[in-house]
Specification:
alpha+beta, Jelly Rolls, five-stranded mixed β-sheet, 5 helices, 24 strands, 19% helix, elongated
Length: 407
């Protein structure tokens, strides 16, 4: 053993001095593995195996990190495409939570906003990004959503990009299944909230051969939809993701995704409804005596919005909103009472009254403000007395304006 130790020391010394030079082959022979005891060789093998395991674990961790970076990059691109709605998305496992737009920031900070966010599926859903669900995908192995344990709400993605269910019949053997499931009704508008829609499965040239269990759908701010899926009625049926609706994920807040054939989709800018202007002013150039059920004001000076009809003397509200009316009369009879009434939908609501105790001339003007629905009818009736006007005067008048238009 002393000789072996000396030989080992000599071998180490010669290698430390310079391995590039001439090396004593006898000294190197002492370090061959097969010349070592069995215990030493086993220890070396175990150490090598442990080293390989460490390297394998390191490689797996690096692969997982790369996959997470790719997923994060895809989700970041999705957030950028829907940045117009000001949403901030947070990924936790397979769930993505949206915290609302800047327009709703004040509402969400309030206690009512927090409670609304907790119960709103637009803020709590599961990302369903499975390429085999695309309408252009055909796979050898058929999938069945009846075996899936559906829980809560889901948002469809295709390679990290937002997508929607098809609203048209999908050919058989697409979407990775035998009978593709499509939405037989249109997607809802955002003001409709959560709606229930029927689902159909295509089979044997019948677009709705399978009437599957209905699902719930909601449109969220940012032009995307969330779905509350239910297990289909049988196999093999699976929910589809329409590849043609990829363009919808790029629509801005002031745009909506539209299509005539449910195949070619485009982003259409929403037109703001301008407030309608309604003003009218008319007069009666003559005399009125006694009872006149409806005064036909034949001299129309203003009629913006075309709400007043000179042939009937009736104003018909073109839109819903708040209106203000005025009507006047002129009388010159002593001791005679003269009344004009404003009539709305057959109800007498306001009066223009004059009563002259002695011989003179007097006029009376009355105003009235009210809320009217579209199509409401307004006119003036001469209930009693005597009113007068000439072709050049405007003493018997009727007019009105729309103050505030209601949606």
């Amino acid at each position: 053993m002393a000789v072996l130790a000396v030989a080992v020391f000599v071998a180490l010394s010669s290698c430390a001095v310079g391995c590039s030079g001439s090396t004593n082959s006898t000294e190197l022979m002492l370090w061959r593995m097969e010349d070592q005891p069995l215990a030493v060789r086993l220890a070396a093998v175990i150490k090598e195996v442990e080293s390989l395991r460490c390297e394998q674990t390191t490689l797996q961790q690096q692969q997982q990190q790369q996959q997470q970076q790719q997923q994060q990059s895809a989700l970041t691109q999705t957030r950028r495409s829907s940045r117009e709605d000001g949403a901030q998305e947070k990924v936790a496992g397979t769930h993505m939570f949206t915290y609302g737009s800047h327009d709703d920031e004040d509402d969400l900070r309030s206690p009512e906003g927090d409670s609304r966010r907790r119960g709103d599926p637009c803020f709590h859903y599961t990302v369903l990004d499975q390429a085999w669900r695309a309408t252009n995908t055909t796979s050898k192995f058929k999938m069945c959503d009846r075996n899936v344990k559906w829980k809560g709400w889901y948002r469809l993605f295709y390679n990290g990009k937002s997508i929607q269910m098809p609203e048209r019949c999908v050919p058989v053997n697409k979407c990775g299944t035998h009978s593709p499931l499509w939405l037989s009704g249109p997607h809802p508008k955002r003001r409709q909230g959560i709606v229930t829609r029927s689902v159909c499965g295509h089979w044997k040239k019948r677009c709705c051969a399978f009437r599957s269990n209905p699902i719930q759908v909601k449109k969220c701010r940012g032009n995307y939809f969330v779905y509350k899926f239910a297990p289909p009625t049988s196999c093999y049926l699976a929910y589809c993701a329409d590849i043609n609706t990829l363009v919808c994920g790029r629509c801005r807040r002031n745009q909506s995704c539209v299509s005539r054939d449910k195949i070619n989709w485009r982003c259409k800018t929403k037109r703001r409804r301008s407030s309608k202007k309604v003003h009218f002013f008319a007069s009666y150039p003559g005399q009125l005596l006694g009872k006149v059920n409806r005064i036909k004001y034949s001299k129309v000076l203003v009629n913006v919005g075309r709400g007043f009809n000179r042939r009937t003397g009736v104003f018909k509200a073109p839109v819903k909103g708040v209106y203000q009316f005025f009507f006047s009369t002129q009388t010159a009879n002593s001791g005679l009472k003269t009344d004009l009434w404003l009539v709305i939908n057959s109800y007498w609501v306001a009066v223009s009254h004059t009563h002259i105790p002695r011989r003179s001339s007097a006029g009376s003007l009355s105003t009235y403000m009210t809320f009217l629905r579209r199509g409401a009818k307004v006119y003036v009736t001469h209930n009693c007395g005597r009113s007068w006007a000439s072709a050049s005067s405007t003493t018997i008048t009727f007019g009105g304006s729309l103050l505030v238009q209601m949606r």
